[in-house]
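**Paired protein data**
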Amino acid sequence: MPRSAPGFWRHRGVTAFALLPLSLLFALLSGVRRRLYRAGLLRVERLPVPVIVVGNIAVGGSGKTPVALWLAAELKARGYTPGIVSRGYGGSTEGVAEVKAGGDPTSFGDEPVLMAGVAQCPVFVGRDRPAAARALLARYGGVDVIIADDGLQHYRLGRDVE
């Protein structure tokens, strides 16, 4: 089942208005967290290869995964060897795992399985994005660029382009 934002997020109304204080609190906490990373008070992990983060402030259906797939194809066409990391939303796998083409979407999430089949490059999932990227690089030493799908809010993984 594809992810998408609840309908009340797209329109002003009673439910959206009632949630406004929570959204303001979330914005404040997110801003503080981002500043802590920028100030170096929270640790950013840099990888030995460039990291490209694909993200959007919208939830579901805004085209992040198609952009990540397009980017992987374009990088491959230009002689790079990309790998993809994803959280694995919707999957049941704990920790870090490699996703193979034709893998089980209930284990890894539907988008990572799709990416593994379409992109024809290594795909790893894990809530801990830096750990997933390290595992990918350890297994596939020839990977020279990491694409972080839907990783805009995951500041711990250092990024070169977002």
